[in-house]
Structures are given as structure tokens and as C-alpha cells.
# Entry
Amino acid sequence: MTSSSLFAEAKRYIPGGVNSPVRAFRNVGGEPFFVTRAKGSHLWDVDGKEYVDYLGTWGPAILGHAPEVVVDAVQQAAANGLSFGIPNPLEVEMARLICEWVPSIEKVRVVNSGTEATMSCVRLARGFTGRSLIIKFEGCYHGAVDSLLVKAGSGALTHGAPDSAGVPAELAALTITLPFNDPERLETAFHAYDGAIAGVILEPVPANAGLYLPIPGFLETLRRLCSRHGALLIFDEVMTGFRVAKGGYQELTGIQPDLTALGKVIGGGLPVGAFGGRAEIMDQLSPDGPVYQAGTLSGNPLAMAAGLAQLRELERIAAYEKLESLGQKLEDCVRKILHEVGRNYAFQRIGSMFCLYFCEPPVLNLADARRSDLNAFRSFFHHCLRSGINLAPSQFEVGFLCTAHTDADLDRTLQVIRKELA
Ligand SMILES: *Cc1c(COP(=O)(O)O)cnc(C)c1O
# Structure
């Protein structure tokens, strides 16, 4: 079977031929390829073509694909049973590790995806505060959660319009969207809705509209406003958790959210999410408290074994230093190329996450990111793919480095980038 015959068949049985829409190449044109095997920093498709991969299964593959320690851990766990629905020791180990690594987490519950984690944070924030309104930021993605699939209104205080069919306007109206990196609009919203805001959810480093960083003081303002007005601060670190540092972005900034959502890296490639925070808040969850939350496969032994093996390996090999030096090398070389070819494009990076916007800097929010030349991105993407470099098929995603990327991988990649941009 070729990729194109598989995609034709997939479309007969699966809506759009994919199990998650970001895989469908709608932003770049063309058809997705089908993968048979992935190892380290490389992928092989059904047509026999090899790629250097910077998609990293959208984040989880921080050690590269199929790292031996993770595969071994899954095989060992599998031999002892696939799922119990009864507590198992690995869940306790995982919970302890999360509480030790992530500064603000005192208690944690494990779920099966990032979406479940953010959804549960929102419910818990509402249950804990007895309030209904949620503030989110334009361009921040928090999974396919009804309340969070809301795009920007035109004014700071307009209530959100649903971003997806099937989300009732009444529900979307409880979500207020604001531009990222705008402390004044934030302050205005807090005053306008004083006493009604249950929580503010954000990616502390937004990485689902490309990549931009919080300006100095923005997160501090947010923390101060949440505390003063009794709203919970929710960091969605599904992408940044265990990726930019052991303890996520909160470790780097020292700012403590009340709740944190985790996912991606934490599962070692298996479906895992988690959310945690102050014990006083987490204790509101069932069975101790009135906020319901549950999952048949939550804390699954294979998933816990995979995640624990990956997290321990990250620590053992001092992965974050290695990823930072890979990232720095990529950044230096891309900037040099941009300079040489005379293009003033914004290259943004934190640790092992990066994005090349096809527009001039600065990019500080979604409106800035939207200035990007999407035709130029499309052509760049397809040129890279033809040359065996796999990037996310959209300008509004990030690239991921993993510890398995080699200097040879980077050199090959930079050669391709230089040729396309020249
Ligand atoms: C990927 C992602 C999610 C959703 O996680 P899923 O596992 O895809 O449900 C939520 N928040 C952020 C920041 C993400 O990057």
C-alpha cells in the first residue's frame, strides 16, 4: 500500500481520513504520508522514504522515537497485565514524581490526554470558586474542550463566539478571550467581571499559534490579579511541562499557578495527561469533594511505565542541557542563514521548541503571528518534506528537537533550509 492509496481508503472510513484534523495537511495542501516505523530522530513512510523528524509526535517524543528504555518498560509492564481498574503501584510513583518535579503541584490526578486535563481544570476551578467565567487568550489552544474552543471577539470584553459547531453559544459566552501579552486589557477585564471569574487558563508560553513568549511582567501581573480577585490561575503546560525544564515553564519563572495541566512528554508516547495543584483545591475532586472526575483507563500501568521511564531518562542523561545546546545551534545557524539571504523573518525559540515565522519580528501575540506569509510557509514546508525534513504541516505550530537529533541531522536540515530560503 502507498500513502496515497491508504489515504484514499482512510477517507472512506474516517472523517477527513485522519483521527486528528491537524494531520490532514489542510493548511499546506497535498496529502499526508503514512508512517510504518520511527526510531530516534528519524521516520520511515510506507513508500520507503526516510525523514528527519521535527514533529516529535507533536511533542511527546523528547527522547526521540521508540527510546529503548521506554519500549523495555512498556514490554515489562505489559507482561504483568494491560489494565486493572484497581490501583497499581506505578500510579503512586508517577504522582510522587510529578509533585516533586512541578513546583506548584501538591496533589495530582492522572488522566488520558491533555484535553481531559484542561477540561478537568476548568471544572475544578468553577467548582472550587463557585463562579462561572473563564478567561483565555487568543491563540492559546487547550485541547478540544467545549468551553475553550472559543476564538477572540473583536473587543477586549466581548464574550466569545464558539469556534466549533456544536458548542452552545450559552456555554461559549462564559469564556472571555483576551489578547496575550496585554496587561491593561487583562486588568480591565478583571475589574469589569470582579467576583465572577473562576479562573484564567493560558499556555504560559503559547505554542499553538507558532511560538511567542510572555513579555516581562505579564505573568506576574496575571498572578497578582488572580490572587487579588480570587480567581484560579491555570497554567496549561501540556506542551511545556517536562519540555522546557523538569518542572515546566513555572520552574523557569518561579511563578506558581494554582492548577497545572500536563500531557504529551509525561506519557512517553502513550496517551497520558495529568492535572494538579494546591491540595486544598485538588481535594474538591470526587471521591473526597463534590467536583466529579473519573476515567476507566486513567493511571493505566503501561502508560505509567512508559511515562516514568521517559521522565527518569530525561533526568539521567541531563536532557535539558543537551536540548538547549541543540536549540542554540539550530537558532544560531538559522539566524545566520536568514542574514545571508537577506530575510528578516522572526525565528522564535525556547529550549527545544522553535518556530520560523514568515514575517518580521516582533511576534508577541496572535495578531502578530497572523502577519506571516502563509504561501511562503507552504512552499517552505513542501520543499523541506520533499527533501526529507518533516515539520508540522502548519505555520501555527512549533518544531521539536529531541535528544536523538544529531549534528548530521541538523547539518542536513540547515542545508535544505538554506536552499529554500535563498
Ligand atoms: C496538545 C495540547 C493540548 C491537548 O492535548 P491532547 O493530548 O491533544 O488532548 C492542550 N493544551 C496544549 C497547550 C497542548 O499543546
Summary: The pocket of pyridoxal-5'-phosphate is lined by residues 113-115, 118, 141-143, 203, 208, 236, 238-239, 263, 273 (CB under 6 Å).
